[in-house]
Automatic annotation (TrEMBL), chains A, B:
InterPro entries for the chain: 6-PGluconate_DH-like_C_sf (IPR008927), NAD(P)-bd_dom_sf (IPR036291), PDH_N (IPR046826), Preph/Arog_dehydrog (IPR050812), Prephen_DH (IPR003099)
PANTHER family (alphabetical): PREPHENATE DEHYDROGENASE, PREPHENATE DEHYDROGENASE [NADP(+)]
Pfam families (alphabetical): PDH_N
Annotated protein name in UniProt: Prephenate dehydrogenase
Keyword set, alphabetical order: Oxidoreductase
Domain spans labelled Prephenate/arogenate dehydrogenase: 10-263
Length: 263, 263
């Protein structure tokens, strides 16, 4: 594995060929010999279009680098199957939105002879629509030393901004970042179609933020809220602050003289 | 008054030389002979810098066009003083965030021989920092026919996007647009400093939206929440939806098996 780009001889096995797995194949195809595994039907044509052969989990798990982009519900099962098939010296990387739980699972189930890096690309197909240069990725080294070279590759070959962190620090910050974005988006979506005509710049930004996450799979929201150990605190704080603000406002507006003008 | 630009001989009196009055002077100085009135001390140097003479309310009220950018608290008083001093055929325009109340006050207090247009520029000094071209302004004709020429001027000379509407339609839509932006900003500001490192694109947009309104004068929020007749419904709906979502989430997360992985 070189710093700037890898030889087409390095094999990359993508486990889970959904929206993110396909995005990864699109950007990593020129750097690796890519294959992918996914149990879902109907992926043949997109795989063909991307030039990625679909293979069994066992076969994909024998790659030099294994990228786990599997859904939350099958993560532990998938890791235990990779654990049996992977070869010594392999690099195993996951890409989930939450890091404490998956890092613990990978550390517990994978053999000592592989390197493990937990990552969270802070983007998805929606934000990567104009390319991934300058986008952010959080990296948590779990086992082995390959994170140094991976970080250099992500910076130099893909142009990503790399944030080195730990699963705990990641989840603490992501609980606020993703927790709040999704909570606000969910509340606003329930308010019905938002205005688009008489809008301010700040409201347009708010609408854009919401539209970026509103098509996320329900599992993403569930993962953020359920699997991030810090999500509950952030969620309850948000709702508590909203409630106390509501009470304050209603009482302030009741007691003060009604003012019919506005600026 | 020409369609494309006005002669320097048309006089414009700005009543209220705060942040918005100054912004107006900056963009209208080349089209009008501008003077301004403001009872606050300490405005001499900014007025000088903008080349705008400060004058009495009585003198400013004798202009061909009077722009009322006064704070909510003095709006009715200011309009009643303008009513005495303004000349026949004058055009009187306000620029507040709420339109039903101010339109009613202007219609009630101003003489029949002037034209009245209630407007809401959907921007402020913050969003106009890179110029005003393409920004939006809502216009509600209240009395007379000068709105046709005003709209043409705003479009052609200033490059604004003009939205013709009524005070009621404006306030109904603004209650959602401005009400939600300010409510969300206020709740998030109470959460403390927001993360800036491990952020997603959607969270960055959210943060930007908040930073645009967080320095608004407290009167702006008060005006939106108190003076917009539709604000209460929007506010209560937002808080009710937040509360019911909180209850739903807590119960869903309690009953379902804890899933420690995330994607």
């Amino acid at each position: 594995m070189n710093n700037n780009s890898r030889s087409q001889n390095t094999s990359l096995g993508i486990v889970g060929f959904g929206a993110f797995g396909q995005l990864a194949a699109r950007h990593l195809g020129q750097h690796f010999k890519v294959s992918a595994y996914d149990p879902s039907p109907g992926l043949a044509s997109v795989a063909k279009q991307l030039g990625v052969p679909l293979a069994s989990l066992r076969s994909v798990s024998q790659a030099d680098v294994i990228l786990i982009a599997a859904p939350v519900s099958s993560f532990e099962q998938v890791v235990s199957e990779i654990a049996i098939a992977c070869k010594p010296g392999a690099l195993i990387v996951d890409v989930g939105s939450v890091k404490v739980g998956p890092a613990e699972i990978m550390r517990r189930l994978l053999p000592k002879h592989v390197d493990i890096i937990a990552t969270h690309p802070l983007f998805g197909p929606q934000s990567a629509i104009n390319g991934i240069e300058g986008l952010k990725i959080a990296i948590c080294p779990i086992q082995g030393k390959q994170h140094v070279r991976l970080a250099a590759f992500l910076r130099n070959a893909l142009g990503l901004t790399v944030i080195m962190t730990t699963p705990e620090d990641h989840d603490r910050e992501a609980a606020v970042v993703q927790g709040l974005t999704h909570l606000i988006a969910k509340v606003l979506l329930r308010m019905g179609p938002l205005p688009t005509r008489m809008t301010t710049k700040s409201f347009d930004l708010l609408s854009e933020a919401i539209s970026m996450v509103q098509h996320d799979a329900p599992e993403v929201f569930e993962a953020i809220e359920k699997a991030n150990p810090y999500a509950g605190v952030v969620r309850r704080r948000f709702f508590d602050l909203a409630t106390s603000m509501s009470v304050e406002l209603e009482s302030a507006l009741r007691t003060s003289p009604h003012n019919k003008t506005g600026q």
